[in-house]
Amino acid sequence: MDYSKAKKILQVSHLKQYFNIGKANEVHAVDDISFDVYEGETFGLVGESGSGKTTTGRAIIGLYKPTAGKVVFKGQDVAKLKSKEDKQKFHRDMQMIFQDPYASLNPRMKVKDIVAEGIDINHLAKDDADRSKQVEDLLETVGLNKDHSSRYPHEFSGGQRQRIGIARALAVQPEFIICDEPISALDVSIQAQVVNLLKELQRDKHLTYLFIAHDLSMVKYISDRIGVMHYGRLLEIASSDDIYEHPLHDYTRSLLSAIPVPDPEYERSRVQLDYDSAPEFDGKERHIVEIVPHHYVYASEDEIPKYKKRAEEFANKASAK
Amino acid sequence: MENKDDVLEVRNLKINFKTYAGDVKAIRDVSFDLKKGETLAIVGESGSGKTVTTRSIMGLLANNAVVAGGKIEFHDQNLLKLGRKQMDGIRGRDIAEIFQDPMTSLDPTMKICRQIAEPLIIHKGMKREKAMAQALEMMKLVGIEDAEHRINNYPHQFSGGMRQRIVIAIALVNRPEILIADEPTTALDVTIQAQILRLMKELQEKINTSIIFITHDLGVVAGMADRVAVMYAGKIVEYGTVDEIFYNPKHPYTWGLLSSMPTLDTKSETLPSIPGTPPDLLDPPKGDAFAARNKYALKIDTEKQPPFFKVSPTHYAATWLLDPKAPKVTPPEQIIERQKHFAQLTKKTQKQNLNKHINEQEEQL
User: Fold this and answer.
1) Between the CA of residue A33 and those of A7, A69, A252, A289, what are the distances in Å?
2) Do B222 and A267 lie within an 8 Å CB cutoff?
3) What is the pLDDT of residues B53-86, one digit of tens each?
4) Domain check: are B84 and B207 in the same one?
5) Which chain A residues in 127-186 lie under 8 Å from chain B, judged by CB atoms?
């Protein structure tokens, strides 16, 4: 992807999401993060549980009210959307697919009503026949049968339910979809099916994804660029190849070294790097800094040379090859 | 026991579950051995029968489960025939289990030292004080920092990774011969997972336990297992050493599993996926259960269940593709890559063996 020409569809700047503010158990779930997502790309957000990746997604789509910072979607500050029409338009353009396909579908609603909820709210169907037609088309798009539409969620397997969740998100013709661990709850053989479906839809409908996950090999596979989160902060942002081949931040390196790989020989020789998070809390002021073009690291002024040197070493190694 | 190296032998195990809809045939003729000190990984999708197999070894099957046949031999006794009291004597002493979810497998109202000491008090009749001292030892062994101070803590005061360490301490405190680990790291983050796996390996060496490791994560299997059994729809479809399964798989289901996981260098536009879903075990298919999802399926696959074909003395696969009469098929690209690697590996070991042989002969001369 050529990022010099690409258009930014989402700009997150200095987003903070705190909970229980002012109380003893105040939590800084997301602490001053900034990143951009370009139109048509997949931006992966990885991190351990509790790193704030899901909170980030939920704050962007407006399920939480951000404590501070700005979310700009298609050139408009989301917090400044006041009229009902503008808000509705925003929610039509931005949709979400949830992690647990067993919890995210209303068990008392038929599939067609689940999928058509967005169509109804936004008055996208002319009449009943058009509504049914749209639902059937959507089910077909996600690889389900049109006579599935009169069934209830419990009649489906996990993979099929996730397809229903995808159909529901697509119903309002969004441009941007937040995928919050959409495959974590699925079996390996089904994961590949859903990932392929998401990729295919992205190509056909020119969608942009924010893909949140902790399965690093799947994230690498689906994402164009990746942000690594830890303790509510974004520590590194780069293209997915750069993150995996030239990781600059110690945390990214440690995270990568912990991924189990389905290759016994590799596993026998694997060296795991431990990560000491103490420097993150030394009180120095840190910002996200562009170390080499399109490769950002959360660093303090005095750490920049260290990362620049690392990047140089990678570049030297690459040219030596 | 057929083999003196074996600590456990499962033969022709069949387990059904009675439900309103009929009998669910969850385990359909499963046989395997567990050797002293080895790690056997059982992999498969949810519903393939991994957990039911281990529950039957532990004597923890649900009330509606019926053992329809087979035996589980441990120290010359059939575990399936033992009464509840006898099984209580073995569970937690000779065979212990680490469960998947460390958040629910500990008693929230009991101090952890008592939970770790409990197996010692119950099985060994140990005095409370001595058991507590040993519990403290165990806590240090599994890497709980500041164990002296944390011994009186409750489970909620620990993180997920630390709780799983406590669960491991409880399971290993009696130095069991067999440890069953049912997805022990699935609920944990990768970095914590790596720590727990490392710990399990270290402890296995120290106390020489045999481990049955259940997981669906092939990456974890590659790092932990000596041997691997692949389960599908209540049957083992392929088993062999870890190298044989990862570098020379023969069953199309194993092919599908291995190629549908992206490695860090996967670049292709679409991931090879296994179409469809596993069969309904209320009414399992007559032939090969995988036939409906298998693009390499032969006509005979829908009619007759394939027997195990021998690939090597340690490697067997139940697929008609290995029948001498079967047509030659080309496996998926990723599998061919893996097989190339296998050829290199075997060459390397052959060379090593040859060199060893020559050296020995030279020494004799």
Assistant:
1) 20, 9, 17, 12
2) yes
3) 999 999 999 999 999 999 999 988 999 999 999 9
4) yes
5) 157, 159-160
